[in-house]
UniProtKB/TrEMBL annotation:
All residue ranges annotated as the NADPH-dependent reductive aminase-like C-terminal domain in the record: 165-287
Gene3D superfamilies, per the entry: N-(1-d-carboxylethyl)-l-norvaline Dehydrogenase, domain 2, NAD(P)-binding Rossmann-like Domain
Protein name, entry field: 3-hydroxyisobutyrate dehydrogenase
UniProt organism field: Paenibacillus polysaccharolyticus
Protein family per UniProt: Belongs to the HIBADH-related family.
GO CC annotation terms, alphabetical: chromatin
Domain spans labelled 6-phosphogluconate dehydrogenase NADP-binding: 4-158
Keyword Oxidoreductase assigned: yes
């Protein structure tokens, strides 16, 4: 089975489609803004004019869009319901455990097998050994999609048929990552204040802690060279994740001081007009 469909060609979906093409898959894509497919169509991907048409082209479809609301806007239409029947849907959009549960029921209702996946990697890491995709959902479907996900990430742990598991582990990972981001941005201010290089510090952290470090190494270069435009991970997109951390804490009646702190910091940077820029633009509101 060499065909895969990718719905959503943002920073992450684009990296997924590109990697699958490079690894010899026959890739069909659909994106709301069709022009974003230009470069991968040049490399051999097929662009369709509707999501349903794209889904019909392959047994396995991956969706990776801004959030679950968007995912329903794209998928919850009649011709897509019919196209999904008998096929496998891999949801790689970041979401909450509850959203994963609801979407599995929704997909099964339309005759599709469902795998919830959560990407613990930046787009540039897709296809590399440091990338991880947490998965859960139908075991039978996982066996079918494992080779495809294995092309995208060096680690593809499967957490069983409890479909909420991947999203819970992902939110736990993101909580850890976002704590690292804030610590790193404060570290950048310490170095800036003494005229020292932030990119060199990022490389040092990558040596100490390769996976998270390679993300922070990238952010160190962004800050050192003020390359905040055309981000790998925008502030606005990361704010969706902060919202999920708040939502999960509320659903489980947990202490929410940490996500609230993140939310205030992110809100300040978005208010300052940095929403479309790299997450590292947070540092500008810390100066
Ligand atoms: P982008 O903002 O780069 O892309 C968003 C995608 O969603 C685009 O394809 C966009 O289409 C589509 N979209 C947004 N609104 C709509 C709509 N109303 N109808 C149809 N399509 C829509 O986000 P990313 O690619 O960075 O992120 C995608 C997912 O991957 C998110 O859930 C994110 O959390 C997750 N992820 C991202 C990581 C990262 O570092 N970037 C890391 C790990 C996970 P259009 O091009 O037309 O705007």
């Amino acid at each position: 089975m060499n065909e895969v469909t990718v719905i959503g060609l943002g920073a992450m979906g684009g990296a997924i489609a590109q990697t699958l093409l490079e690894k010899g898959y026959q890739v069909t894509v659909w994106n709301r803004t069709a022009t974003k497919a230009d470069s991968i169509v040049e490399k051999g991907a097929v662009l369709t004019s509707t999501a349903a048409e794209a889904i019909r082209a392959s047994q396995i479809s991956i969706i990776c869009v801004s959030d679950y609301k968007t995912s329903y806007e794209v998928l919850d239409v009649e011709d897509v319901h019919a196209a999904l029947s008998g096929r496998v849907l891999i949801q790689l959009t970041t979401g909450s455990p509850e959203q994963a549960q609801k979407q599995e029921i929704w997909a099964n209702t339309h005759g599709a097998a469902y795998i919830d996946g959560a990407i613990a990697a930046a787009p540039t890491q897709i296809g590399g050994s440091h990338a991880t995709i947490f998965t859960s959902g139908s075991m039978e479907a996982f066996d079918q999609v494992k080779p495809v996900l294995g092309v995208l990430a060096g680690h593809v742990p499967y957490y069983g048929e409890q479909v909420s598991a991947a999203a819970s582990i992902d939110l736990a990972f993101l909580s850890y990552l976002f704590g690292s981001y804030l610590g790193f941005f404060h570290a950048s201010r310490i170095l800036e204040s003494d005229g020292l290089r932030i990119d060199d510090f990022g490389s040092m952290i990558a040596g100490v802690s390769p996976m998270i470090g390679s993300i922070l190494q990238y952010e160190g270069e962004v800050i050192q060279h003020s390359k905040y435009e055309n981000p790998q991970s925008s502030l606005q997109m990361s704010m969706v994740t902060v919202g999920l951390l708040m939502e999960q804490a509320s659903e489980k009646s947990m202490n929410n001081e940490f996500p609230l702190f993140l939310q205030n910091m992110f809100h300040k940077a978005i208010e300052a007009g940095y929403g479309e820029q790299d997450i590292a633009s947070l540092v500008k509101t810390m100066r």
